Task: inverse folding
């Protein structure tokens, strides 16, 4: 397939571009503000384009291109979405999705994948969360993703393009580019702190619950969707998740365990309330939710990385530097 990836120089974009190109697809990587200075990555993708997806000249250029599939990743993050004006939030998080579909659906595009987020559900307390769960956006980041999802749904029903929304849980893993802003991600942050400081520091009591999925598994999920998904009459939405949740304290325990196994050093774990934590299962009875990924696994997808293997890959990344 000839695949356009917007935000290809970002954290997920770099991984997806490399993965799909290595799988034999012809990848056109749209990058902004600069094309990465990474000769190996640039040699794998078929074409790199420097351009802002909100720029009319970039859209005019893309209107003359033919793609089999497009993956749209460009979005302000949660913090930036909260401080910009409504006009800028719509201009960056919503309108590019609409403009891409308007242009590419008229030019023979077969599949369009929009990356949304599980934040569209708001605060999740417990239970099994399927793609049909009620939406409850509680911030601008979630709200604009709901709006873009509706754009995808409209084009899925009204055009010949199969428009697919993926709601991503919490991805983690080594970045492709050193400049990727990925160290605020909790698994990445804990592993980097453990490796560099020989200790793990939590900024809370560790009771918060999250679903984590390794970056390579995210790429494999997208590959499965591109290969096997079919046009659904109802909303065409898939969770990309592990369908397993951990407290942050449990996660810290796994980081500590893997570090000990790899490097032979027993490092301490400190929370905001306690130094040198030893009981990592104290919140084992806390209410949990499951971001159900059955719709995706029914296509044949199965995550290859459990949490320990993913943490090992993070430490391998640091050791190779």
Result:
């Amino acid at each position: 397939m000839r695949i356009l990836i917007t935000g290809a120089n970002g954290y997920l974009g770099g991984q997806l571009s490399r993965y799909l190109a290595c799988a034999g697809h012809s990848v056109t990587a749209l990058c902004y503000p600069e094309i990465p200075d990474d000769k190996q990555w640039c040699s794998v993708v078929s074409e790199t384009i420097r351009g802002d997806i909100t720029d009319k000249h970039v859209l005019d250029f893309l209107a003359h291109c033919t793609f089999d599939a497009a993956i749209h990743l460009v979005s302000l993050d949660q913090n930036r979405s909260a401080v910009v004006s409504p006009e800028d939030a719509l201009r960056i998080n919503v309108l590019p999705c609409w403009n891409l579909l308007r242009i590419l659906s008229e030019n023979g595009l077969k599949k369009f994948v929009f990356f949304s987020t599980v934040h569209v559900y708001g605060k999740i307390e417990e239970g099994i969360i399927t793609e049909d769960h009620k939406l409850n956006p509680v911030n601008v980041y979630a709200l604009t993703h709901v709006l873009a999802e509706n754009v995808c749904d409209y084009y899925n029903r009204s055009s010949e393009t199969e428009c697919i929304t993926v709601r991503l849980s919490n991805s983690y893993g080594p970045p492709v580019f050193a400049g990727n802003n990925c160290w605020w991600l909790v698994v990445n942050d804990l592993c980097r702190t453990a490796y560099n400081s020989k200790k793990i520091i939590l900024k809370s009591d560790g009771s918060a619950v999250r679903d984590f999925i390794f970056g390579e598994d995210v790429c494999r999920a997208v590959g499965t969707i591109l290969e096997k998904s079919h046009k659904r009459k109802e909303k065409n939405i898939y969770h990309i998740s592990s369908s397993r949740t951990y407290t942050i304290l449990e996660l810290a325990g796994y980081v500590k365990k893997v570090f000990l196994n790899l490097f032979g050093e027993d490092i301490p774990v400190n929370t905001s309330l306690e130094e040198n934590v030893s009981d990592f299962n104290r919140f084992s009875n806390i209410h949990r939710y499951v971001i159900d990924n059955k719709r995706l696994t029914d296509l044949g997808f199965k995550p290859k990385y459990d949490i320990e293997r993913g943490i090992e890959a993070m430490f391998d990344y640091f050791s190779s530097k």
Remarks:
- The first strand starts at residue 2 and ends at 6.
- The radius of gyration is 20 Å.
